[in-house]
Amino acid sequence: MNTMKKQLLFPALLAGLSLHAVAQQKAPAQAPPAKPVSQSAVSMSPDTTIVSTHEVTIKGQRIPYKSTAGTQPVWDESGKVLAGIFYTYYERTDVKDKAGRPLVISFNGGPGTPSVWMQIAYTGPRLLNIDDEGYPVQPYGIHENSQSILDVADILYIDPANTGFSRLASKDVPREKFFGVNADIRYLAEWINTFVSRHNRWASPKYLIGESYGTTRASGLALELQNSQWMYLNGVILVSPTELGINRNGPVDAALRLPYYAATAWYHKALAADLQQKDLTAFLPEVEDFTIKELLPAISQGGFLDDQQRRNIAAKMARYSGLSEQVILQYNLDVPTNYFWKELLRDKGFTVGRLDSRYRGMDRELAGDSPDYNAELTSWLHAFTPAINIYLREELGVKTDLKYMMFGPVHPWDRGNDNTGENLRQAMAQNPYLHVMIQSGYYDGACDYFNAKYSMWQLDPGGRLKDRLSWKGYRSGHMMYLRKDDLATGNDDIRNFIRASLPKAGQPAKY
């Protein structure tokens, strides 16, 4: 382990990290086992830091860095603490010019999950133990991430309220201030302003990276930071993006799924031999072209589509999806994802995963319309939960009895008035420096790659921003970085994106 001497800041507050809600007294020799302390009674100081120093080798270069793990408060208008938000902040220590050093601010999604996923599996300096395709291995733990982006940027990982070690200050805190599309964006923008001020990062080029629901968060924050905090970004990276409030109901929603079905069927060798012989990226453009030019107009005609044309469309869909023509006709050309995950490998006794359809599951019964469980998520929790607890508690020195919440109590979540795609477009229009990159896994069935392309197209319907919009595809699922090859490629794509979006010294932000 590469932890060096630890240095404690705010020592009076640090005690809050190890406080139990109930003081523990020495038990008599014959005392019965103590009852576990209720999580609702355990607290952590809302304003704490623990600093440690480390090194990591990235691309063959030894990089010294400082890690700050801690909490920073959220206050209300009167200055009352509403929550303590946990974060981990990595700074390269051999860089003198902080003004020119990019800062990447990272979120995951859910809503209701902490930053653990990208922190210890994608961009951070430490990497959880998994095999080359992302499956759990024992012994659990972590090791150096030789692909981390810490060589080119400092990184801040934020756990939103009620995720990871972040908590509301009390049960009386109004939940509507935190748990909704726009509430989440507002309080995090204020929090980021405070963090940037405390750590003297106002001069730094700034980037947001969000995964899954974190892309909704990052897209909304791009405009909120500009309009309410007067903080302007150089880039936003959307990893496995959501729909971003962009309407795609009806025929569009039904048609856009097919390229994902085709990618998954190709992976599981469920297609005709002539299609299987093609490389994935050579095969998918054919499916995408059919989807836009034939399938979407056909579904739009509904019950008035000519019977022969309907059968022709169903036959092509069957050829590309690995499903039977009969099933497709029974669903009126609109096969739901749940049924696809259950049906594709039914004859082989398996289901396929939702977030990563490379993963296979086994249900109690072969019959049914949807899988019993998400095969990939169970696998991921198997690997991630021990690793993040080992890392934070043993390597970074976070001492607390709080449970690290992989999925926290944030529901009900107010999804109303989600205009985050339009927010992002406005932010780009107002800020000529701002670039956007989308990263998608071909086998992601929750935030599928072709829907991500559609979102990019609809972000800029006039085509005037497309020189600052880009999309990258990877041969894995929702967390494409779990596959070793994509971990390297994805981080390289982020490196290149950061370098390309840094303006030359003195270059004005103007059209």
UniProtKB/TrEMBL annotation:
<dbReference type="Pfam" id="PF00450">
    <property type="entry name" value="Peptidase_S10"/>
</dbReference>
<feature type="signal peptide">
    <location>
        <begin position="1"/>
        <end position="23"/>
    </location>
</feature>
<keyword id="KW-0645">Protease</keyword>
<keyword id="KW-0732">Signal</keyword>
<keyword id="KW-0378">Hydrolase</keyword>
<keyword id="KW-0121">Carboxypeptidase</keyword>
<dbReference type="InterPro" id="IPR029058">
    <property type="entry name" value="AB_hydrolase_fold"/>
</dbReference>
<dbReference type="GO" id="GO:0004185">
    <property type="term" value="F:serine-type carboxypeptidase activity"/>
</dbReference>
<dbReference type="GO" id="GO:0006508">
    <property type="term" value="P:proteolysis"/>
</dbReference>
<protein>
    <submittedName>
        <fullName>Carboxypeptidase C (Cathepsin A)</fullName>
    </submittedName>
</protein>
<dbReference type="InterPro" id="IPR001563">
    <property type="entry name" value="Peptidase_S10"/>
</dbReference>
<keyword id="KW-0325">Glycoprotein</keyword>
